[in-house]
Design a protein that fits this description.
The protein is of the alpha/beta class. The protein has helices at residues 10-20, 42-58, 85-101, 115-132, 146-152, 162-171, 210-220, 232-255, and strands at residues 23-28, 61-62, 106-111, 135-139. A 4-stranded parallel β-sheet has the order 2-1-3-4, with helices on both faces. The model has no long low-confidence stretch (mean pLDDT 95). GO terms for molecular function: hydrolase activity, acting on carbon-nitrogen (but not peptide) bonds, in linear amides; metal ion binding.
């Protein structure tokens, strides 16, 4: 039987909630361009597959994914759908409020959309904890994989790069078209990086202007990084590392 909440009857949901010990996982991603070789839904698929494996192992309730994210800088390429942060904030808060009403008062938000989603998710989590008396954790693969990324020799975090492509190759190989990938190596820019593992001084992230995004898209089809170096073997190790960390977070919450 599927671990997803939407596949259950209300009676099955009640049993699942009891089994979960109050823990629910909410995958959140985006529908945005991921260059020539990855699907628009990459960020959501990544959040879903990590959440699915952890829910299977722990009995946590797994909600339907929030498919959309804030992606204004990717609107230069067809297929991208961007939602205003305030709308995402309110919708996610309502999801949490509904879960809490049913006894799921320990919520884990899985962020597949990296740094762009983080700020509104943090604000939403703070409001939910303050107003609803629940616990909310934000699990971001980019922050939960620093050790394994170094160990596996991956390049820096970019967009549709070696890391994302390897993960997708391991979990959704039929959706990856590596033969279409165009590398766009990340240049070392003084005082700026979006990579959580970056160890030097850096400005805070602001989404690219449409002009800059358009120029990048024309050069590489929307990629930042070197996807040609990706492989499924390292993608599986990366995935398993994320699942292991998420299981630890779930089990810690279940023990409280």
């Amino acid at each position: 039987m599927s671990v997803y909440l939407q596949t259950k009857s209300w009676e099955e949901a009640r049993k699942a909630i009891k089994k979960s010990k109050g823990v629910a996982i909410v995958p959140i991603g985006s529908v945005e361009q991921h260059s020539y070789h990855l699907p628009l839904g990459t960020d959501t698929y990544v959040a879903m597959t990590v959440a699915e494996d952890a829910a299977e192992k722990t009995g946590a309730v797994l909600t339907p994914p929030v498919w959309f994210g804030w992606s204004p800088h990717h609107m230069v390429l067809p297929g991208t759908i961007t939602i205003r942060p305030e709308v995402l904030f309110e919708m996610t808060y309502d999801i949490i409020e509904s879960l809490v009403a049913h006894g799921l008062n320990k919520i884990i938000l899985i962020n597949g959309h990296r740094i762009v989603n983080v700020v509104w998710m943090q604000l939403c989590a703070q409001k939910a904890q303050s107003k609803l008396g629940c616990t909310v954790k934000i699990f971001d693969p980019a922050y939960m994989s620093k050790d394994i990324v170094k160990e596996l020799g991956f390049g820096p975090v970019g967009h549709a790069e070696e890391i994302e492509t390897s993960h997708m190759m391991a979990r959704f190989p039929d959706m990856v078209h590596l033969e279409k990938a165009v590398d766009n190596p990340i240049k070392d820019t003084p005082l700026y990086s979006v990579d959580p593992t970056y160890e030097h001084d850096t400005l805070c992230y602001v989404p690219s202007s449409l002009a800059h995004a358009k120029a990048a898209a024309e050069k590489s089809g929307g990629c930042t990084g070197e996807p040609s170096k990706a492989d499924a073997e390292r993608g599986k190790i990366y995935h398993d590392h994320l699942v292991s960390n998420l299981v630890k977070v779930v089990e810690q919450l279940q023990s409280e």
